[in-house]
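Here is an idea for our session: we take a single protein and study its fold together. To get us started, please write out a protein record for me. Start from the sequence, derive the backbone structure tokens from it, and show both lines together. Go ahead whenever you are ready, and we will take it from there:
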Amino acid sequence: MAEALWNDIVYTDVLQSDGFVVDYAVCTTYSLDMPSLLSVPFMLGTMTDLTEATMRSPHLILETINQSAGKFAVFCNAGCIAIPQANSKVYSLLEQSVVQVTLQAKGGGFINFHPKVWIIKETNPNTGTQQIKLIVLSRNLTSSNDLDVVCELSGKISTKQATPKAQSKHKPLVDFLTWLIGKTDNCTIRKNMCSLCIDINCIEQFDLTDSPFEDYEFFPMGIPGYDGHAECLEQSMLKHATEMLVISPFVDTHILNQMVSCSHGARKTLITRHASVTQEIINLFNNEVYTPKEVLTDKVEKDVAVDLHEKVYFIRRHEGHLYYNHMYLGSTNATKNGFGRNVEFLLHLKFAPYKTSYEKYRSELINDSKECMFEQVISVPKEDGGKKNVTDELILRRAIAAIQKAQIRSNNGSYTITIQCLPNKLPSESVFLYPLGCNGKEQELTDDLIFEDIPLDSLTEFYSIRTGDLHRVIKIKTEEMPTDERDKAIFRSFINTKGKFINYLAFMLTEDVEQYILESQQLEKELAEDKTAALEQQISTSLYEDMVKMAYKDPDRIASIRQIVEKADESVIPDHFVEMYSTFENVLKRIKRL
């Protein structure tokens, strides 16, 4: 888990702004894996400049989750959460932050929720300045070596509403967020996202300073009022288009024909995946088709197998008597599903005059240097037989649509879960289900499916679902979930000795996380030895001193210790600590009155 978390911390280079702290963040993604989900609290928090060894600390993970509670929401496509290689109960602590988007089937097939966008509200604690950071990218919230693209824009939140012109310009972004709000019944998420919409209407413009661009435009697709094919592809991208460079991992000839038919004599280049290339496509682009090299060399001179995942459209348009260069980037593939079916999001950026050209942009990607990542396709590659099993995917989607809710009942110290479905909507093919982490409980999905003898700390809204060769995680809306008691039980499963309890408190009070990690293992070892009582007295005195120091620097951190005391089992709390802490709280109250 630690290695996966570490790999995803690269996101922090984009998600965090110097001098700002995150108030709230919304992420949209098609696919999701659990370690990447667990990395979100680290990305948005203040504990990112850590070594890989430090991130193995369970105290760090628990406290980071605790600090991020209610500060973010992740929207993902139903049935696209990957099964974790190693299960951990901490995943359940994040379930309230995950919204599974289930879209109705259309024309016998399924519609995907496919955008990859982050909307983040930040505050500078020193100046009080607030801003919205918008990040549009092609990467899902998963671990991946694939080639992706990312772009960030920041807009200052004013104390008053922006002009009608600015609000109109940003309306597609607000409408996209408003549509997302309708996909969750979580009151905290809805409230925070409504606040984001209000904040965006107080932004006069997103800053393009020090960029080659002079204007921007938002293109959500697949939501009411937004037709990606008509409004984005035909009216914006292809209107008066001449030269064009298309980067898309998945393509179809219908969309590519539309692109190539614009100004037949103009140069056009396609960069795509090997598996997407056909002879017809090679002919369409006059042999100007490129794919990633089979093996690339990374920054530490290590050969890495990668594939293409970015979606970028560089288009030169003839507007009046002048030519302007435009870039569209985001989640949309050059396919009919991308522009005309799925929920997607593209950011349109208009280059300032003389900032680039088709030749310059193309030469940055395709050139003779050994660092060039792409090679020309001369002939059609052989099929590798790795095509997606569409039949299993359809079965899985029908099963997800049929599942209505889960109900939990207490039963003599353990719990019983009942899964309710719409019987007439269940697929005829076999689908299997079990609560994530309870591998031995797998059963075939039916209406009123019952899971018995589930321990409190194993209760979850995440379930493994399996059919054919597909094995995924889904989230099921649950009634009577004893969330507080369950979260407390998970906490106790990790903090189960006096040494770990004291370590946790020490971690909460430290200002040097790295130093804390170095000392914590030795501390636990000493606490496990026979001379525990004397050492506990020494540690309690040291903790008291640290608490006094922290009270003046960060009183809220002292107040949060009460939550930890209430979560922990009495057997792991050192003698006299509660009495000492209560006395300390009373002193703090008196100081506040002065």
User: Anything to note?
Assistant: Confidence is low (pLDDT under 50) at residues 1-10. The two ends are 48 Å apart (CA to CA).
